[in-house]
Design a protein that fits this description.
The chain contains 17 helices and two strands. It is mostly helical and 455 residues long. It has a two-stranded antiparallel sheet. The protein is flat, with a radius of gyration of 41 Å.
Amino acid sequence: MKWLSVLPQQCILLMTCLLMALDAVPIDIDKTKVKGEGHVEGEKVENPDTGLYYDEYLRQVIDVLETDKHFREKLQTADIEEIKSGKLSRELDLVSHHVRTRLDELKRQEVARLRMLIKAKMDSVQDTGIDHQALLKQFEHLNHQNPDTFEPKDLDMLIKAATSDLENYDKTRHEEFKKYEMMKEHERREYLKTLDEEKRQREESKFEEMKKKHGDHPKVHHPGSKDQLKEVWEEADGLDPNEFDPKTFFKLHDVNNDGFLDEQELEALFTKELEKVYDPKNEEDDMVEMEEERLRMREHVMNEVDINKDRLVTLEEFLRATEKKEFLEPDSWETLDQQQLFTEDELKEFESHISQQEDELRKKAEDLQKQKEELQRQHDQLQAQKQELQQVVKQMEQKKLQQGNPPAGPAGELKFQPPGEHKVEDAPKHPAQGHQPLPPGHVQEPAARTDQIHP
């Protein structure tokens, strides 16, 4: 997916939310090492997943809108405020019939997908009487009141929803990381409680030693500073640090030649700094913490350099940042191991929440165990009744045998005929073809042999 490989600097490359949707999520590729690979015009560029639950729908809408020449031209001349305000969405009325038909189809598919998700969720809790239309209100990226056609309101809602969700994306990631760190500490302390005093002291000493070892690393340059970029220029790009040129650096690391440094291209610049602190081979280095460090570096540079807050850095913005005092004389950069990630009160609140969840799970487990025991009791009771009935039937058959009565069959019929009685089919049959019985004293001539050979 690609919005024009080369654009004038004054044009907006993507709609605000679509820009962020395509470029917001970091990937683990060091783009500074990609050299000599020019962008091929028309080549499809794969972008990382945005993390949004409607990511595929968002991408499909972008792909379809790209096929309309009129909408694409309007997009190139639109500014961010026009996109955010919904003015651009009204241009949807002027796109071709084929494009509108395809967008209608995409929306119907998305509504059907959301309804299936709702049904699956409700079925999991055995709920009945589902009002899908009411529950669709929770999804803010489309107009649920019109599930069949894609209107300008749908595009406007998609832009606003993606903008809001992606603005909160980094915040959500920070919160999840904080929970991760608190869980690590919680599990460590719980483990210590299971040890005797000697083993506990040994474990505490090992923990402090690993912390010290992790903190013993070379100086980390301030992200986005001249020293940091020159280090990339020299070690990753293999160029002379005395010939460092910001404009050349920008063009070198604009890997896809679109005139912007996106968030992925920025994060690739921090790989060398992160390698000073984190090594996947070392027990004391946590790779989850490394990605959090990368995220914080990228956020810091964006806040300092990205003037119009479109989550892209233009050449003009980049060059302007290199003229600031902070670029030449930055403050020292504190890595995660030098920061307090959470307080004791926050940890206690987190542990209280975990304890509450554990109590709820324990109660559910006890209820399930009781249900299991009750079902087992009912099963045993039914088995006992079955055996009792089988014993009664057996006793009744034995009693009949003792009284001289034959045992009955499944339908109550006798299993054998008493002496002197014959079944109807065993009685002598009457002569066939109207022949009468022979008078007394006459002997019936033997029938001719059927196997006799005639001359």
